[in-house]
Amino acid sequence: MADATIIPFPARTPLSAENDRLAKALAGLQSALEEQRAAMSDWRFAMAELSVGVAGLAHSLAGYQDSLGQVDTKLGSLRDEAERLESWADGVLARPT
User: Fold this and answer.
1) Which residues of the chain have pLDDT under 70?
2) What angle do CA 58, 71, 53 make, to 5 degrees?
3) d(CA 26, CA 39)
4) Pick from 40, 18, 22: which is nearest to 30 by CA?
5) Integer distance in angstroms from the first to the last C-alpha of the chain?
6) Residue 11: per-residue pLDDT
């Protein structure tokens, strides 16, 4: 048995070392929580900016829709006038000379 290797049992870590590890882990968790809060704050800000942008787009689209409505009204008036002119021209051409 002279060739045998004796492996010592692991020594227990002192309680203060375990408390230090726990404190480091808690500090890491606290840091991660602060980063999460900052990320949520940034996300909320981005959502607010997006909301403002979408509201502006909706306002612009409403203005565009109003403009298209005005163009449609003007085109309707022009179409009516063109039909009256066509009718007048047809009447003039139908008269005997």
Assistant:
1) 1-2, 13
2) 15
3) 20
4) 22
5) 141
6) 76
